[in-house]
Automatic annotation (TrEMBL):
UniProt key word Glycosyltransferase: no
Annotated protein name in UniProt: Endonuclease IV
Domain Xylose isomerase-like TIM barrel: 31-263
MF-aspect GO terms: DNA binding; DNA-(apurinic or apyrimidinic site) endonuclease activity; phosphoric diester hydrolase activity; zinc ion binding
Annotated InterPro entries: AP_endonuc_2, Xyl_isomerase-like_sf, Xyl_isomerase-like_TIM-brl
GO biological process: base-excision repair
Keyword Disulfide bond among UniProt keywords: no
Keywords annotated in UniProt: Endonuclease, Hydrolase, Nuclease
């Protein structure tokens, strides 16, 4: 269990002189004074075990959290069997490499609805996630799997769906992407975000509030929901940070803004003064 909120960039910081992940983490910790980083496996899991071991070795005596974002290609409602099997493999590989890196949490986008009903997709997602988790448990890979709240209404991942998966499967908790929630429910009021935290607490108790995996950025209200820099968006990020403080949330906030580390530093500085 973690004792506070950590802050980090999604992937190697843009300002890092060296672009490999090991040096990106070192730079994040030593130069930016951030205390977390999300491994971006979004376009594939290509990390070698040796690279993962080096990360684990580097962070072992530091107050630093590693998470990952699994590939965007995962779709547990894939209509083709090979795509479904590949989806399970990608989630498994993401979890394994993150665990070998000393990481604790894996965020992923569970599925598209396609022509299926949300109930059908829920069952399929649950079955596949269970299968992956059982394999991880068999191999003593102890890590939290996090279906993420999704922006588009044709993607599986509303707040209830990710909460229900957490209730149904051990080792599953939601990844809360505040920008996606703002987009999906078309609401950026502080009352809305308060209701989200209250809903998490009433369904999942302190377990979720003590173990948050949060994505934060602004978001464009176009058909794609492109991420934006916080200060150029309508995200009430300061209010959200105040809410997280009020609810005594612990865990990690990953900046997914286009300026990546800059917003992570901005949020950390603001939060520490609250
Ligand atoms: Zn995501």
């Amino acid at each position: 269990m973690v004792e506070k909120l950590y802050f980090g960039p999604a992937g190697v910081p843009l300002s890092s002189p060296k672009k490999d992940i090991y040096n990106g983490i070192k730079y994040t910790y030593e130069e930016l004074k951030l205390n977390g980083l999300e491994l971006e496996f979004t376009y594939g899991v290509r990390m070698k075990d040796e690279a993962a071991n080096n990360i684990k070795e580097y962070i072992k005596d530091k107050d630093f959290i590693i998470t990952c974002h699994a590939p965007y290609f995962i779709n547990f409602n894939a209509q083709e069997k090979t795509k479904l099997e590949n989806s399970k493999k990608m989630l498994y590989e993401s979890a394994k490499k993150t665990y070998l890196s000393g990481g604790i949490s894996v965020a992923f986008h569970p599925a598209w609805y396609h022509k299926n009903s949300p109930e059908e997709v829920y069952k399929k997602a649950r079955e596949s996630i269970r299968e992956v988790i059982n394999k991880l448990i068999d191999e003593n890979i102890n890590i939290v799997i996090r279906p993420e709240t999704m922006e588009l209404k044709n993607k599986f991942g509303d707040i209830d769906e990710v909460i229900n998966l957490s209730l149904d499967i051990d080792n599953v908790l939601p990844a809360i992407d505040f920008a996606h929630l703002r987009y999906r429910y078309n609401d950026n009021s502080i009352e809305f975000f308060r209701k989200i935290l209250e809903k998490l607490e009433s369904n999942l108790g302190r377990e979720i509030l003590d173990n948050m995996h949060i994505h934060m950025s602004g978001i464009t209200l176009d058909s794609k929901g492109t991420h934006k820099i916080l200060e150029e968006s309508d995200m009430p990020w300061r209010d959200i940070l105040r809410l997280l403080k009020e609810f005594n949330c612990k865990g990690i906030i990953i900046s997914e803004s286009p300026n990546v580390e800059e917003d992570a530093v901005r949020m950390k500085n603001y939060f520490e003064k609250l």
